[in-house]
Design goal:
Radius of gyration of chain B: 17 Å
Number of strands of chain B: 0
Number of domains of chain A: 1
Distance between the termini of chain B: 15 Å
Shape of chain A: globular
Oligomer: heterodimer
Distance between the termini of chain A: 31 Å
Strand order of the largest sheet of chain A: 1-2
Number of domains of chain B: 1
Order of helices and strands of chain A: HHHHHHHEEHH
Structural class of chain A: mainly alpha
Radius of gyration of chain A: 19 Å
Strand content of chain A: under 5%
Largest interface: A-B, 40 and 42 residues
């Protein structure tokens, strides 16, 4: 089951990017997803911070998996995650103070991102470090990609710009609603709908063939 | 007094935790299938919020000035123990409710609305009373959004939703419209002269 072959590592690495994408397929960690994707820059900062925390804590949890007693495992994971979040929080504050200010409490809220705790409980605590690392990198990348998709679309539609660079010239009337809170829900709803359509399309030819 | 009322109304309606800040979305989508369960989870969350707010005030007054880097860790430990306490109480008093809430009861720990409450209270330098008003407003706002969502979803179950939209997608659209409706409260800010 937990034999570390190159094929297995590759499979764990790629599954998070598309097939089990944390946001589009598993619909986990939605609070930061919706709250910070009103611009591309915020989405990148959030994605990088989450990636760092996920990879760091998965590796540590996997290394310590035989030492953590079952009864207190959730609290242990939370404390490990909180430590990494404190690191990421301070690093962002020092490196990009403007973005840190805009994201506000949401960097600290990575602690309670259910995606991270979910990966510790479901994967890192049961698998050797290399597999846990591959899984975390895959999931983290999938999360970043999803944030970028949402952030990109919302910024392009809602502000007519990408990374602050204006795209359509002065005549474009921005869809202000897309950068406001309702836009987040509507956008994610639209993306989930798109995924449902894609999945149905994929299934139909197979049913005909069978 | 006015100040306290303002904090309460602002966090209840204008800056609703769920529909404006996107906090606590997991239970918001997960437990909003049945109205009664949604209402009780809302009440449990308000209770945890009040206790957390009091503990956060105490921590801010005595512990954190000496060790600011412990902020996140100490808050999360307080929240986790409060939730444990609530869980034991509900299990004892109402086993039916305990089963109905299921996994979402321990998951109050990872409800980001609660950690957000503690952090925001700290960054805005709220005192004990202000913190309580904030907790009541924020928790009430979460419960309100949850109950509204549950009521709409119970209705939506009876109407003919296209098969492809069923599940999470339609819930997202419902939440979007709710959030749109709550944006109407933003007008309160300017008319109240604040």
């Amino acid at each position: 089951m937990s034999a570390t072959t190159p094929e297995r590592v590759y499979a764990e690495l790629t599954k998070g990017i598309w097939r089990e994408n944390p946001i589009f397929v598993q619909v986990l960690g939605m609070c930061p997803t919706l709250a910070v994707t009103n611009s591309v820059m915020n989405a990148i900062a959030m994605g990088v911070a989450t990636f760092f925390v996920l990879v760091g804590s998965s590796l540590l949890v996997s290394l310590l998996r035989r030492l953590i007693p079952r009864e207190v495992r959730i609290s242990t994971y939370i404390i490990i995650i909180a430590t990494f979040v404190t690191l990421a929080d301070s690093a962002l504050e020092a490196l990009v103070p403007a973005v840190h200010k805009e994201l506000g409490a949401f960097i600290a809220l990575i602690v309670v991102n259910c995606l991270i705790l979910g990966r510790q409980e479901a994967f890192a605590s049961r698998n050797p470090p290399l597999l846990a690392l591959a899984d975390a990198i895959g999931m983290g990348l999938g999360f970043c990609i999803a944030l970028l998709c949402l952030g990109g679309t919302r910024e392009i539609l809602g502000a007519g710009s990408f990374l602050g660079v204006s795209l359509f010239g002065p005549n474009f009337e921005p869809w202000v609603i897309m950068v406001l809170p309702p836009g987040g829900f509507l956008m994610l709803g639209a993306v989930l709908l798109l995924f449902a359509v894609l999945r149905q399309r994929k299934r139909r030819p197979k049913e005909v063939g069978a | 007094m006015n100040e306290l009322l303002w904090i309460f109304v602002a966090s209840l309606l204008v800056n609703n935790f769920t529909l404006y800040y996107f906090l606590g979305l997991c239970p918001f989508f997960g437990v909003s299938g049945r109205l009664t369960v949604a209402f009780r989870l809302g009440m449990a969350t308000i209770f945890v919020m009040i206790i957390t707010s009091l503990c956060a005030s105490a921590l801010n007054a005595w512990v954190l000035p000496h060790a600011p880097y412990l902020r996140l860790i100490s808050f999360i430990v307080v929240i986790a123990s409060t939730v444990q306490f609530v869980e034991m109480t509900i299990k004892k008093l109402s086993p039916v409710l305990f089963r109905a809430l299921g996994i979402y009861l321990p998951l109050i720990t990872t409800n980001c609305a609660i950690l957000f409450l503690a952090l925001t209270q700290t960054s805005r330098d709220y005192g004990v009373l202000e913190g309580l008003a904030f907790a009541l407003g924020g928790g009430g706002g979460f419960a309100l959004a949850l109950v509204l969502m549950a009521s709409i979803r119970e209705e939506a179950e009876l109407s003919s939703v296209p098969a492809i939209l069923k599940g999470t997608a339609i819930n997202m659209f419902i939440a979007g419209v709710l959030s749109l409706a709550f944006m109407g409260f933003a007008g309160l800010f300017s008319s109240a002269g604040n």
